[in-house]
Write a structure and sequence with these properties.
Length: 430
């Protein structure tokens, strides 16, 4: 494993380039044809875009053929503007391929229902097809998965095998793994390295994809609340699970904020470059739910909100059933065939609800989703332009703030960068 990490380290671009190039130079196989699997723009702060550009420039300069397949999962294809924002201007646009999670995948095996029963403590018993983008099997010498390790609501800690079997995976595993995470309990999942969904992902990769020459470059990033700057604290590169496990240790140390008391009101800002849907924007719900006091409020500032789901089918299902919580979603799964066929959407309806414990108010700008549409899916709604007069993200600092009239709020400037929890609640879930 090639690594550089520490809670007080800040890896700068020259050092990062040296680490990336060193790993590539030490590869024990020819790199005539390479596939890069970075995240999309919704992981803008991961340094994955910069690393991808570094790898591409070096390998193409040495005569390699390089393709880039952003690990979209269920997200929308990236626009030219988003590609340039994420990866810079040096990579030709034709190098970027688009992952289609519904149509351009191949099944490489099945994990039986007995395994799911074991992972879910008997709650689920379905078989899972391991599907990944067919491009992975086009004779690449190296498949390099690039991304950030950070607490995650479905799998516990993001990246590693998730970037393969979900990021460039197919609908069966995506849907069923998300539902496994939901029935396992989001509070018992977030921030944990070893979870039922992680076991499923690793088993899928180990048993069905072992023929692929997959390598990983993983980063750990931290937001400095005092300066507002984002620092790279970790770089890990290798082929086995130790790369991920070491990254998780550092991420748990720098990305989880444990609070001594529960805020009654949490305000989360969704950067318009990263968040245009509740499918993504509900990280505001997932990542703060263990911090918010009972009968509290979550205010989501969403200036660019333009849809619910990033897939037409999922968007329609969110509009049909709303964020109905655990009981409502489980009942709907029993009664509705289309929702049973899209269990990832059902899991999202569960996780995106507070189950009545606290209020969720979305505040859209001019992105296109109306206040009435937000209310129709079970959230409260207020116009962004009005709410931001009181809760201006430019004037708030991450953490507790006291407003001029004495109101106390807890502010999160980017929910994708961590996990916030009341210390006692997180201890109970460990």
């Amino acid at each position: 494993m090639n690594s550089r990490f520490g809670k007080d380290i800040s890896i700068q671009l020259p050092e990062l380039r040296e680490l990336v190039f060193q790993y590539l130079d030490e590869a024990d196989q020819p790199l005539d044809k390479v596939l890069l699997l970075p995240p999309d723009h919704t992981r803008l702060n991961s340094m994955a875009g910069t690393i991808t550009a570094m790898v591409y420039g070096k390998l193409v300069g040495e005569g390699s053929e390089v393709d880039i397949l952003p690990a979209l999962g269920t997200h929308n294809p990236m626009t030219e503007a988003q590609l340039r924002m994420m990866f810079g201007d040096t990579i030709p646009l034709e190098v970027f391929k688009v992952h289609d999670w519904r149509n351009e995948v191949v099944c490489k095996g099945t994990i039986g229902g007995d395994a799911l029963s074991e992972l879910s403590d008997g709650k689920l018993d379905y078989a899972v097809d391991v599907e990944v983008n067919k491009r992975l099997f086009e004779g690449y010498d190296m498949i390099l998965s690039i991304g950030q390790v950070v607490p995650h609501e479905v799998v516990g800690m993001a990246n590693y095998t998730k970037n393969i079997v979900v990021g460039v995976g197919g609908s069966d595993l995506i849907n069923k793994s998300h539902f496994l995470g939901a029935v396992s309990g989001i509070e018992a999942t977030m921030g944990r390295t070893d979870t039922p969904v992680r076991k499923l992902f690793n088993r899928a990769a180990d048993t069905c994809l072992s023929e692929l020459p997959i390598h990983y470059i993983l980063t750990v990033m931290e937001l400095d609340y005092e300066s507002g700057e984002i620092h790279q604290r970790g770089f890990y590169a290798g082929e086995d699970v130790s790369v991920f496990e070491e990254a998780c240790k550092l991420s748990r140390a720098v990305n989880i904020t444990l609070l001594d008391r529960e805020p009654k009101k949490v305000v989360v800002y969704l950067d318009p470059h990263e968040f245009q849907s509740t499918w993504l924007g509900n990280k505001s719900v997932y990542r703060t739910r263990m911090a918010i006091a009972d009968d509290g409020d979550l205010i989501v500032l969403a200036p660019a909100l333009n849809e619910f789901g990033e897939d037409p089918v999922i968007d329609r299902l969110i509009r049909k059933f709303g964020y109905c919580g655990t009981t409502g979603a489980l009942k709907a799964v029993e009664e509705d065939e289309e929702l049973r066929d899209n269990l990832g959407a059902a899991a999202h309806l569960m996780a995106g609800s507070s189950d009545g414990r606290f209020r969720i108010t979305y505040c859209p700008g001019e992105g296109g989703v109306t206040l009435n549409e937000i209310r129709s899916v079970g959230y409260e709604a207020e116009p962004y332009d009005e709410v931001v007069k009181r809760y201006d993200p430019k004037l708030l600092k991450d953490g507790f703030n006291i407003l001029p009239d004495g109101e106390e709020i807890f502010f999160v400037s980017n929910p994708a960068l961590g996990l916030w929890a009341f210390k006692e609640k997180f201890k109970e879930a460990e």
